[in-house]
Amino acid sequence: MSGLFGQDNDTSNTEVAEESEPTWDDSTSWVKFVKSLFIYFLLTMLFGIFGSSFIYLTTRGSDLDLILPTDEQFYTAPQFEILKSGPFTDVNCKEEPSGMFAGLEDNFPYNLIKLGDIKQLSIVERLCNWFARTVAGSFKTNRGLLKGWLDNFQPNTPLGNHVFQIYFAAPFTLIVGGIVAFITGGWSAFGSGVSADMKVTVWGGFLLYAWGLFFALAFIMSLRLVATICFLPMSQNWKEVSNIMSCNVKPLVILFGFFACGSAYDTLDPTIAGVMGIVYFILIAITIIKYLSSQMK
Length: 297
Description:
two-stranded antiparallel sheet
């Protein structure tokens, strides 16, 4: 009997010990939650910066023709005009610019394009002409496609909504557009090469230099699309991009809150995560009601 009683006591003690053990490590979970918040904060900032850069491009109007030139004259002119800054001079230990002036830059590689009968050109000139026309055709086609895509997001239209562009349009363009640019860059380069000089293209296919140029242009077109959306607006007018981002703080806060609630459900106690989710949805509802009421006035 004592053995039986002793076994029952051991079992009951084990059950009590299991019940007393915490099922949720408070300190470890909060550390993981804070780390994930930092990562999601950086991700939200990337959404804001790249989304604002995308909005910058879609709101340029006719200036987009200067950012993404598709005019035939641009690809045939030996030189193009550009604004240059003059030298800086020290005035009371402070550097002052001397102003801006118009200057000419060599339009490489388009200045290698030769007009007239290609049969009268030397071998080197013919290769240079083929190279320049292939590059020009690839750049012109892909710039035209990107400009046509950006024209769909005109301001004061449903697709021109800033929240839609930050959440969906900009990420979609970067991910899918990069793949599409790689494909169109290679095909447009191939078509431009054939159109420029069939014989040089055929020989280039056998000697592999044509394939090298086609794949290089495809890769460059993909990288240029990402650079155009993510970095070109910041380099041209970072104040305007930052102003666009400041005007869209609420959507970015909502996005960060969504990430934070998801992280809470992954790392924290279900009760705490549930309370955070309820508060988050209440704040979203209040924001939507305020927005709708402001639109009805």
